[in-house]
Amino acid sequence: VVGRSRRSGRVSAMQRLLRTAVVESTDFARARAHANEGTAGGAVDVVAVIDFSGSMAGVLPEIVTSLGAVRNRLPAGSRLAALSLEGREINALPFSDQWGRTIDALKAKRGAGETSVQTLRSALIKIEEERHWRGARKALIFSDAATGGQRQTELESRIRRLIDRGIEVHLFCMPSQSQADRLEWLRLSRALRLEDPSVLYGRRVGFL
After folding, report:
1. Helix 14-25 and helix 27-35: axis angle, to 10°?
2. Across the beta sheet with 136-142, what order do the strands follow?
3. What is the pLDDT of residues 72-130, one digit of tens each?
4. Full DSSP string of 38-81
5. H-type alpha helices, the chain
6. DSSP 15
7. Global pTM?
8. How many CB atoms lie within 10 A of CB 66?
């Protein structure tokens, strides 16, 4: 028996009910859930790292729009910040509970140029150095930065440092990635015990 619960509900809500039953009856899952509740009435602070390179242009509108769906599933008071990777530049939008304004600012940007793994690593350093967290911490990473078929040990180290600081990291595979890059993202997710990055972000919103 994985878990027990006296909760009831519609069959359409079975997945949520099962997840609740497991969390409530499993010590480590219950502890993790409490740790993620945050300090502002369960509010969550989300940082979206978005690669605005030319190769991402086709999926950027969907990514930015999906942030609105993320907001709808989070508690009141949750905030959004964003780091847009534009060539070698990293442009930051600070934490705000006005998600619509941040999303509109991101919608106004256009994909161009190329983003390197080094720029992505630099963005993760900025997250690590962030001092204005309030609630539970989450980082969403949307990038197709080319790995050149190389094992990204430095990137792995940077993500691990975020996890060690209590930041829940979500790494997403992009349609524009090469097979080699997708495999490296999968390796990173296994090494760091992240959720499967091959699942499209649109289907992952409910698990944030």
Report:
1. 100
2. 89-96, 79-86, 44-51, 136-142, 167-172
3. 999 999 999 999 999 999 999 999 999 999 999 999 999 999 999 999 999 999 999 99
4. -SSTT-EEEEEEEE--GGGTTTHHHHHHHHHHHHHTS-TT-EEE
5. 14-25, 27-35, 60-72, 99-107, 117-129, 153-164, 179-192, 201-204
6. H
7. 0.78
8. 20
